[in-house]
UniProtKB/TrEMBL annotation:
Molecular function via GO: glycosyltransferase activity
Protein name: Glycosyl transferase, group 1
Entries under Gene3D superfamilies matching the protein: Glycogen Phosphorylase B
SUPFAM superfamilies: UDP-Glycosyltransferase/glycogen phosphorylase
UniProt keyword annotations, A-Z: Transferase
Presence of keyword Membrane: no
Organism encoding this protein: Thermosipho melanesiensis (strain DSM 12029 / CIP 104789 / BI429)
NCBIfam families the UniProt entry points to: PelF (NF038011)
InterPro entries according to UniProt: DUF3492, Glyco_trans_1, PelF-like
Glycosyl transferase family domain segment(s): 277-448
Record-annotated DUF3492 domain positions: 5-254
Amino acid sequence: MIKLKVGIIFEGTYPYVVGGVSSWGHSLIKNIKDMEFCVIHVGDIPKERQFKYEFPKNVTDYFEFSLFAQYKFKNKKKIAKKFTNELSKIIKYPFDEKAMGKKLYHLFENNNSFDFTSFLKSDFYWNSIINFYQKYLPYENFPNYYWTLYSMMIPFLNAMTIDLPKCDIYHTITTGYAGISAILNGLKYNKPVVLTEHGIYHRERQLEILRSDWIKEEFKTGWIKLFNTISSIVYQGAKKITTLFKDNQKFEKEFCSDDSKMFVIPNGIDVEKFKDIKYKKEKHPFNVGLVGRVVEIKDIKTAIKAARIVKDKIKDFKLYIIGPKDEEPEYFKECYEMVELFNLKDTVEFTGMVDVKKYYENLNLLLLTSVSEGQPFVILEAFSIGIPVIATNVGACRELVYGSKEDIIGPAGIIVKPKDFKSIANAIITLYENDTFREKASEIGKKRVLLRYTLKQMIKNYKNLYLSVVK
């Protein structure tokens, strides 16, 4: 019997980054044993790095490409005049990304094997950027304008041009560059594409761009509209679109009109891995764990600020920050200096990379202070043990902690606003003081995982998804 081969495409994560999407992907591959996988990694620039995961046996191929590499596509034809003529009818300013994405997808259906990077040397491209410059940005330094556009276009065009290994299905774990590569290769090989979004890519990029100080204000709208258009193309071409929770679909529908292809498949964990860990009901000392990388998006600084308040109320309080410290060294340095400044060296401990299971058995609460999340595995892990959770109101955290319409069994912790360190501190103190609430939250978390978030349920859903698009 020939096994289905799934090309699963990660952008900047698996197999080089631990946790989050990488943990999810590794678990998915490992547990769909009757299918083969080609792991495809989309990186930024070529560089030597160490894998953080050992591939399961059913990974039969690995492929990697870099968005900003200088590739020579010798076997591909340069973009034809007919193509740029069609393109000129589609790309009109001001841009309607949803309409443009739909038209571009239909253009790519019959034009998917070019060296798309040759577009940058076409008369159409040069004339277009000159006309736009003269009309809208004549005061801007032209070399800066030119190279800004180049840096916007080259990763997009590389992702469109690169030939991925031939697979039966392409499963992209984001829209973005990974998604556009999946769509173009799906068209080249006449193979279906499925999309899973943990976070909403175009929304995340929009926030990132608006907050950035390295992109000039004049160019921010252009960057945002490019990512919106990429998402629109991927939504148009994907056969099935899955996300982790219902609220995410509101943002997907900004650029996707076809509700029939949209599904929710929650994350799931192997509850058997945690069955022997008992929840720590004894609250002296009162141990709180933040499981995550020491990076800005996890907002460790807010957790440290909250710890300063809690320490004044709970003398034997301890905060463990459990995760790698080396991904953003400058941010870790700032966090460590904050701990010293607040005189919390005996209260806040950075564990680095450890076996988190050894810490779970000593935690009274799990804390998550992120400013952006999908559906955090650490919350599901905590629930499987019965550890109540305090989390910021991002991603699926509210639904996990408070339940959804299908799950009204009660709260398994407390949800707070992002960056609100006072509310986080008060939530920790509330769960410390209210034994009844804390123990009830522990029971509800365990029930909720078994009802909706087991690995067995997740694997069954993804297997059915793959089979549904190849029938």
